């Protein structure tokens, strides 16, 4: 069952990614990537390794977090419900089969695509800073999110109001549960990592909007849809989503601080500016070559 | 001048006295309580009941919040630590005699399903003891009197008995018996429909099974069906006959209140050690006190407390024979034979107090009560193979099991392997069965899917409808005011519209009840007659009649200002 769902997921995300690479990245960047990929991999490798370690650690920690939380955590389900329970009920009352299908699709496929595509899109840039910022922000999301999970115990709307929030996703498409069960524990709803990672992508898409203007629009629409889907499907409260956006904001801001400051690759490369992404008529200004020397360029910041 | 001062002093002291009397009277505030329960992932009906009951209690003027806890955490809070106001949960139920351990005052301070309510009433204790020592003829009347007293006191409020539905693949196995469904016997004696079917695949909607296999754990065991396949008991209940039949015990005879039990010959545990009368005697001593008398505070195994307490003395006659003496009537005594027999060589070391580094562990917590018990070693028809947390537990047939002998005519394990897949929700469990990836759902389906299941089950899948002993209930913590007051509890019972809840929460797949026993044991005076015979609902269609509720509280001696129920703190 799990294998079937996974295969389907990989197929759909691969298809979406291929189409988007053609639409947003373009032939020229892909051509350059073929010649420059070694140096880009070198630049992004350290943070990619850190992210991999964090993800591995996360999969181990997921078993420990609930045990720890029940000893030291605050159980916030009731205060959250008391504060905003009506909103989720209202949102749920808007349910139609089409919306349910759309949000279920977004929650599973759209979300994974949203996280995977920018990695490739930023890899296709000569300037590796966006890529490194993205990977750093992912790492921060997972790390800070895990810390919050330890301290906050909260069940999502579907656990408190099973009949209103008719666990739309799992009852309409039971097979998805095999997938999400591998990743999520039911007490880990504050903050919404779905929202925070999606928002992270959207925030970074805003920073790189001059390079990938169309992607910025798509990323924003998808990120908003992911955030709404978590509430529509009864998985998260509004407060979780807001906390997720705050976490994304913090992660992106911190990633901007960290990247360049503690850059291993730059020390190894002796601060020599690499070949910039010139010759691309779509985005002449995309190579922030000033970034590579460690100083922050201002024009692309929020 | 002096007189003036004196009279001023007197006046002032009078004033201060009045002030003191006024201020030092404790305030009367709105009653604020919290209902503890489990999230929908653990039990969909409990949280729905809880929210409906909260609405009613709020309408009646209380301030009510809900506290959700993970299943094992919930059981620890309510059954072990007694840290709650009221709770809503599913009770495992059982023979009427299980009321003895549920409500006898000698168990108020113990952990487990024995008296989590802290209910203590000497007159009621007498009734419990009376039904326990009754023999077959007098028992029905004794049980009826006890239940009438129960209904008057409302130590907890029984709400309803759910109907249990399970799915089973009839194209792979014959011999599914709905009456057996809640017990391990259901998985023995099944006939594979064709050659080459060598594995029975269960789907189980509760991950706790993959986290802990300790037959004594009150937090991790519900029906205990799977641990019954791992551990044999002296006798097993046969649902058809309301009697028990010998299992590890070949035979038993009664002489003057002493039961002489003969064990089957050449029984071994899964690790090859022989099972002797010493192991049986050890088990009963160990379950009565898992510290084996080594500490000042005894630590009985909560799940089997009442059954083991019926045993006064055990003598080992020889390797294969024991003598039990009981302080109770025969029906209650035979219940004592259904506890799991543990291997002494594995469990004796577990009488040590449990340790957790850096934490002071409560007295009376032994290793035996908290161990995960992996791998479990019993003598039962299936032996443990491996487990993966939140994924599966697998077993293989124990070929030496006595049911495999040609001379024994008991249901036996017919397949070589048994695999329990964990799948947390009914909807996907049904899909797993319909897709022929599993043979049977081990736990009953949640009631919201039953309508669909009855309509759309494929041809090769059978629906097993089983009698249930479980019941949903609202438990009071009688250690705390005002829940210690039976008048208060009776008014609260009247705020629960059981018939409406059955329709609203269970889609009608349950039976509202006033007593915590099966239909056969319900006395006529307490039978459901369209309304609760003892505490009829104060309102209509789930909607509380606020003025009737206020009047009922006033009559019970509480203050109600029309909007708020006020109690002295």
Automatic annotation (TrEMBL), chain A:
Give the compositionally biased regions (Basic and acidic residues).
Answer: 288-302
Per UniProt, residues of the Phosphatidic acid phosphatase type 2/haloperoxidase domain are 139-256
Location of region: Disordered? 273-302
Q: Which UniProt keywords apply?
A: Membrane, Transmembrane, Transmembrane helix
For this protein, the parts annotated as crossing the membrane are 6-26, 47-65, 101-125, 137-156, 189-206, 215-235, 241-259
Q: How does it sit in the membrane?
A: Multi-pass membrane protein
Tell me which GO cellular component terms the UniProt record holds.
membrane
Where in the cell does this protein reside?
Membrane
Q: What is this protein called?
A: Inositol phosphorylceramide synthase
Classification from the root reads: Archaea, Methanobacteriati, Methanobacteriota, Stenosarchaea group, Halobacteria
């Amino acid at each position: 069952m799990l294998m079937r769902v996974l295969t389907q997921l990989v197929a759909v995300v691969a298809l979406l990614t291929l189409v988007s690479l053609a639409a947003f990245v373009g032939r020229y960047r892909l051509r350059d990537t073929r010649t420059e990929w070694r140096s880009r991999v070198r630049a992004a490798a350290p943070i990619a390794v850190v992210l991999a370690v964090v993800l591995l650690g996360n999969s181990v920690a997921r078993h420990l977090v609930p045990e720890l939380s029940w000893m030291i955590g605050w159980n916030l389900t009731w205060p959250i419900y008391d504060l905003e329970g009506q909103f989720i009920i209202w949102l749920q009352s808007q349910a139609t089969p089409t919306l349910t299908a759309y949000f279920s699709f977004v929650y599973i496929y759209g979300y994974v695509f949203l996280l995977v595509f920018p990695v490739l899109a930023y890899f296709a840039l000569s300037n590796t800073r966006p890529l490194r910022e993205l990977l750093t922000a992912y790492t921060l999301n997972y790390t800070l999110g895990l810390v919050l999970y330890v301290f906050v115990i909260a069940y999502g709307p579907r656990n408190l109001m099973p009949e209103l929030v008719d666990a739309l996703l799992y009852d309409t498409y039971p097979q998805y549960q095999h997938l999400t069960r591998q990743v999520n524990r039911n007490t880990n709803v504050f903050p919404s990592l779905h929202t925070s990672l999606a928002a992270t992508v959207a925030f970074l898409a805003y920073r790189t909007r001059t390079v990938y203007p169309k992607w910025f629009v798509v990323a924003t629409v998808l990120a908003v849809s992911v955030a709404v889907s978590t509430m529509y499907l009864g998985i998260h409260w509004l407060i979780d989503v807001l906390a997720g956006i705050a976490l994304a904001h913090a992660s992106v801001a911190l990633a901007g601080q960290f990247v360049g400051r503690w850059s291993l690759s730059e020390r190894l490369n002796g601060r020599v500016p690499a070949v910039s992404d010139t010759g691309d008529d779509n985005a002449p200004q995309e190579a922030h070559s000033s970034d590579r020397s460690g100083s922050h360029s201002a024009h692309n910041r929020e | 001048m002096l007189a003036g001062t004196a009279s001023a002093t007197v006046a002032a002291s009078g004033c201060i006295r009045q002030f003191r009397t006024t201020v030092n009277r404790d305030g009367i505030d709105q009653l604020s309580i919290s209902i503890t329960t489990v999230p929908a992932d653990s039990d969909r009906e409990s949280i729905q009941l809880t929210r409906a009951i909260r609405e009613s209690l709020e309408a009646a003027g209380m301030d009510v919040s809900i506290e959700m806890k993970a299943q094992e955490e919930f059981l620890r809070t309510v059954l072990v630590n007694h840290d709650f106001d009221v709770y809503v949960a599913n009770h495992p139920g059982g023979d009427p005699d299980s009321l003895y351990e549920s409500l006898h005052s000698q168990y108020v301070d113990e952990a487990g399903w024995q008296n989590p309510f802290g209910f203590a009433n000497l007159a009621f204790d007498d009734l419990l003891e009376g039904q326990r020592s009754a023999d077959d003829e007098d028992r029905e009347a004794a049980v009826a009197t006890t239940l009438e007293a129960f209904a008057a006191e409302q130590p907890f409020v029984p709400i309803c008995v759910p109907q249990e539905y399970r799915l089973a693949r009839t194209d792979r196995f014959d011999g599914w018996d709905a009456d057996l469904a809640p017990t391990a016997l259901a998985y023995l004696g099944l006939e594979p429909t064709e050659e080459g079917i060598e594995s029975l695949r269960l789907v189980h909607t509760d991950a706790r099974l993959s986290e802990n296999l300790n037959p004594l754990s009150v937090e991790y065991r519900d029906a205990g069906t799977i641990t019954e396949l791992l551990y044999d008991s002296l006798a097993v209940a046969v649902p058809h006959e309301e009697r028990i039949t010998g299992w590890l015990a070949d035979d038993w005879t009664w002489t003057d209140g002493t039961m002489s039990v003969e064990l089957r010959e050449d029984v071994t545990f899964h690790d090859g050690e022989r099972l002797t009368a010493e192991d049986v005697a050890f088990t009963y001593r160990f379950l009565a006190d898992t510290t084996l008398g080594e500490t000042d505070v005894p630590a009985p195994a909560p799940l089997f407390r009442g059954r083991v307490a019926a045993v006064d003395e055990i003598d080992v006659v020889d390797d294969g024979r024991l003598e039990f003496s009981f302080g109770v009537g025969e029906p209650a005594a035979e219940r004592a034979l259904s506890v799991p027999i543990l291997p002494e060589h594995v469990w004796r070391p577990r009488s040590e107090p449990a340790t957790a580094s850096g934490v002071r562990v409560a007295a009376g917590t032994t290793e035996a009560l908290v161990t995960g018990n992996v791998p479990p070693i019993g003598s039962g028809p299936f032996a443990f193979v491996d487990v993966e947390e939140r994924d599966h537990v697998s077993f293989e047939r124990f070929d030496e099991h006595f049911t495999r002998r040609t001379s024994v005519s008991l249901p036996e394990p017919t397949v070589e392997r048994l695999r329990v897949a964990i799948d947390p929700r009914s909807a996907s469990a049904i899909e797993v069965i319909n897709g022929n990836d599993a043979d049977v759902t081990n736990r009953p389906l949640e009631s919201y899917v039953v309508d669909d299941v009855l309509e759309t089950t494929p041809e090769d899948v059978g629906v097993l409808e089983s009698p249930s002993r479980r019941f949903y209930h609202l438990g009071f913590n009688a250690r705390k005011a005002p829940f210690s007051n039976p008048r208060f509890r009776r008014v609260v019972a009247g705020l629960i519209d059981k018939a409406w809840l059955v329709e609203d929460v269970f889609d009608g797949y349950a039976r509202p009840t006033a007593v915590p026993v099966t239909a056969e044991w319900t006395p006529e005076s307490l039978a459901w007659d369209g309304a609760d015979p003892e505490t009829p609902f104060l309102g209509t269609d789930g909607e509380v009649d606020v003025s009737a509720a206020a009047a009922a509280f006033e009559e019970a001696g509480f203050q109600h200002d029309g909007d708020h129920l006020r109690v002295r703190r």
